[in-house]
Amino acid sequence: MTYLVTGGAGFIGANFVKYLLKKHADIQLIVLDDLTYAGNLGTIKDDLKDSRCVFVKGNITDPTVVQAIFDQYPIDFVVNFAAESHVDRSIENPQVFLETNILGTQNLLETAKRNWTTGKDENGYPTYKKGVKYLQVSTDEVYGSLGETGYFTETTPLDPRSPYSASKTGADLIVKAYGETYKMPINITRCSNNYGPYHFPEKLIPLIIKNILEGKSLPVYGDGTNVRDWLYVEDHCKAIDTVLLTGRIGEVYNVGGHNEKKNIDIVKLTISTMKRLFDEQPAYKKALKKSGDDLSWLSENLIIYVKDRLGHDQRYAIDPEKITDELGWYPETKFEDGIVKTIRWYLENQDWVEEVTSGDYQKYYEAMYGNR
Ligand code: NAD
Ligand code: TYD
Q1: Ligand 2 pocket test target in 165, 169, 204 with most atoms within 8 Å of CB
Q2: CATH of 2-198+231-258+311-335+361-369, one of 1.10.287.110, 3.40.50.720, 1.25.40.10, 3.40.50.300
């Protein structure tokens, strides 16, 4: 099978590339990524040494780039990770979110449709090359925000509230439209918040780890009671692989693991876990930018409550019953294990953090959080 994986130099896309190369022997991966601030070729440099994986730098909104890939490779699957993905940035500059997330998605769909079409059926619908599928990697944020109870199911009405989630919803709807209007073989997965290796340190968990290592304060938006449903990134990759290979055509699958946590609890757990790891394995202290053996400063006193995000969604929580019942997927990594694995990965991969934050990151950080 030949896969076009867009956004494969970003957090989840890169983890997916690694997952596929390990899981399936007989595959060819074409990674298309425009290497925005969130994309980093270094993340997949070892994977690109494998002859099964090639990289194309380009924008998913560019018809010529995408067509050239279909001209060169017999693409069976398109898995679209490429997106502007950060809610805070979408509040500052929504336009690029609409361009990449909506128009980019439509360009991928249109190009795939054109190249996969083999003819027409008796009702005038296109017929397609056997076995092809377009999978849109979406988010639970398209469902909006929950109160204290309840879960998002696949039939929960779409109710996005941020420019990011609105653009992802627009993308989902155009994917659905290609599925209905042209009978194109599609799936949509809607996943909760991911965490794990290669997560860009503008998102909560890697930002907190990075700030602790630098002895900086830990910014918690609002009162810290907002809830996210966290899933280890490899479990998400496994879900996408499962849906791609066995999901019913045209269906949406929610992906999540019943792992709701308040932001403040995530921050406190990260502090206590890092403290414990430094005690157990003093070699990890090498990752600290603040020198000295006395770690008494590493405490909940680092937490500061900052101005809340505009339109901050209160709670996300996924009901994963459909994907579990139909396709047998379930999350394998318990949060208690996943968070330790993640923190260890950051402690052992400070070169990666420095590489991805060497560009505009500092400017972004100062504009967002001031000079704290
Ligand atoms: P990310 O920001 O880490 O990576 C996005 C990647 O897309 C980067 O490599 C970037 O260079 C690339 N990209 C951006 N614009 C592009 C364009 N116009 N053309 C080509 N490449 C472009 O994002 P992520 O966290 O890995 O998320 C991947 C996908 O999963 C996104 O679609 C996101 O909406 C979805 N998702 C993310 C989460 C999460 O918790 N991170 C949860 C659910 C769904
Ligand atoms: P984030 O990682 O940006 O993911 P999303 O907004 O897609 O859920 O944020 C996760 C939660 O953490 C969200 O409720 C906002 C909050 N948050 C903070 O409290 N402080 C921070 O510095 C960041 C980046 C996020």
Answers
A1: 204
A2: 3.40.50.720
